[in-house]
Amino acid sequence: MGLIPAGAAVRSPRPRWVMAGLAAVVLAADQVTKSLVLAGHPADGSAFGWVSVRLVRNTGASGGIASGYPVLVTLAAIGVTTLAFVLAVRARSRATAVCLAAVLGGGLGNLADRVFRAPGLGRGGVVDWIHFAGRGGSLDVADLAIQFGVLGAVIATIIADRARAADRRRGSRSSPSEG
User: Fold this and answer.
1) What's the pLDDT at 133?
2) What pLDDT digit, counting tens, does each position of 21-43 carry?
């Protein structure tokens, strides 16, 4: 059995291109916005209504968890990004696969920070800069893609599973012969 099973949505090239394109767009948008924020040196807390700009370098996982262990967090991020890729190419629903491609792009964006930003390989801090009023931490475009991608994948999977179950029920019922 190969990486891509027979029933996977990405057996044809078009969904693969869409997924690769979405992951690349998320990665690029994440890195470009981080570069712009770093170059602009915004005043801490520049507010735009209920959203403000707060520049934070997060060496931990979401919300700063395990911030004292950046190498461990980097290894976990590699694992999660790899898992997102595997799940995306094995997904049976195109919508699920595309949502997981957003997760993959976000994971790659944050992983790029951990690998290439100071203080060095595997110890770099993720540049978080979006802060919502009333919420504890800051995040970035990659985090938004990961969160909405996971939510979308869960919803798409539930919908696809229900549709498959309904199709099986319809197929298992024999319609009465014309009378």
Assistant:
1) 78
2) 999 999 999 999 999 999 987 76
**Are 127 and 137 in contact, with CB atoms under 8 Å apart?**
no
pLDDT digits (tens, 9 = 90+) for 104-136: 999 999 999 999 988 878 788 899 988 887 777
**Residue 128 designated active-site:** yes
- Rounded to 5°, the CA angle 43-47-51 comes to 125
> Which one-letter amino acid corresponds to residue 163?
A
pTM value? Answer: 0.85
Contact 140/107 with Cβ under 8 angstroms? no
Is 44 known to be catalytic? no
- Tokens in use for 96? 């699920």
Identify the residue whose tokens are 């949505």.
Answer: 9
Question: For the chain, what are the domain ranges?
Answer: 40-167
> Of 30, 143, 161, 167, which residue is the catalytic one?
143
Mean pLDDT of 9-23: 90
Residues in the chain: 179
Which residue among 128, 140, 161, 167 is the active-site one?
128
**DSSP symbol at 54:** E
Q: Quick one: 34 exposed, middle or buried, by C-beta within 10 A (0-12, 13-18, 19+)? A: buried
> Structure tokens of 94?
């195109």
Please give the backbone phi and psi of residue 22, each rounded to the nearest 5 degrees, phi first: -65, -45
